[in-house]
Amino acid sequence: MNEILNVHVVYGGKSAEHEVSLKTALNVLNRMDKRKYNVYPVYITRHGIWRMLPRLDHALASTAELETEAGPADGNAAASMGNWLTRRLAENGPHLVFPVIHGTCGEDGTLQGMLELADVPYVGNGVLASAAGMDKVMMKRIFTGAGIPQVEYEQLLRHEWEQRETACCNALERTIGYPCYVKPANLGSSIGIRRCADRDELLLAIGHAFRYDRKIIIEKEAAGREVQLAVLGNDRPICSVAGEFAREPGFFDYYKKYEAGNLVQRIPAQLAGSLREQLREYALQAYRLLDGSGLMRIDFFVTDQGEIYLNEVNTLPGFTPISMFPALWEKTDGTTYAELIDKLIGLALERHEQKRKIRYGREDV
Fold first, then answer.
1. Which of 103, 163, 182, 299 is most exposed, with minimal Cβ within 10 Å?
2. Mean pLDDT of the chain
């Protein structure tokens, strides 16, 4: 008889996307089949302290139940993480980690690297895909080399800005111009992003973005629709139909995404057949270029003239009530939220088993 899989849902974290992670965790924990898995919430506080919650056997009412200070009294992030690794993961039975930390210290390969060292299977993308997909500059360089179209962009490092602010502005106005968008290189959920129409706004936006990262990216505005596709799989990934949010023109900021409460999904997005196929091909190409595993959401701009620009990838897309990734799969092939979780767990176990067969140069394995 097979042992029940212990699934540890890790959420929260030090990222600016902490609140979004809580929303995702609430949905994942409530939709996970408690008869099929032993489900353990693992909360990482805003200071990086790991808190182990008891096994979950009921539905949670709100994210407030996820932010607990109960657990080990370790005041040190490394000690509390080690305590979780040695205590909880040393218990009997098979274990798997389901990370739902968006942004830095969770989606960027750092958590994935720790789990690789601990030889623990986990849901989602590996170290390389997570790190390259999170860093918008590196992601764009990879896709540019493969011929995937993107809007014009420039990167800017904090020390460059501090040493020659005026020269940087002049260069950006020559190469990118207005309107443009300023973004932290390593963050999501539209946090730290601002649209700029002149130099005054550019100065404010750059200062704001440097609050979240030492490297920022400045992009030329692409006027058009924002279209999203979801990819699922390991070595043989499949792609969903395209979707978009029906909304008023303008920048889609954090408030509009998560707090305004008036988002309307349009799935499938109304696109010509040739555009749909081209988007699908680019999405699968981007997934393979990053050596994706498990899941990824790929976002595009589509102009009125039918031009396509890959905007960014999301290696750990949201699973909140208004998130596009689970909705896309439901509309594509009828996959329910619970079934999607099962598929992601299955893909994680499959990838982990593949890695365990690698000899790493040893002849005695």
1. 163
2. 90
Question: Nearest Cα to 141, choosing from 133, 237, 180?
Answer: 133
Q: Can you say how many angstroms the Cα of residue 53 is from the centroid of all Cα atoms in its chain? A: 24
| 8 Å CB contact between 311 and 153 | no
Q: Who contacts 122 (Cβ-Cβ below 8 Å, separation ≥6)?
A: 96, 97, 98, 99, 112, 115, 348, 352
Cα distances (angstroms) measured from residue 149 to each of 57, 146, 153, 220: 47, 9, 12, 13
* The pLDDT of residue 322: 85
Taking alpha carbons only, the member of 194, 324, 301, 303 closest to residue 252 is 194
Residue 118, SS3 per DSSP: coil
Residues of the chain with pLDDT under 50: 1, 70-74, 254-255, 258, 260
User: What is the rounded distance in angstroms from the CA atom of residue 106 to the CA atom of residue 127?
Assistant: 11
Span 213-251, pLDDT tens digits: 899 999 999 988 999 999 999 999 999 999 999 865 555
Taking the C-alpha atoms of residue 60 and residue 30, their distance in angstroms, rounded to an integer, is 6
Q: Which two tokens stand for residue 69?
A: 């200070």
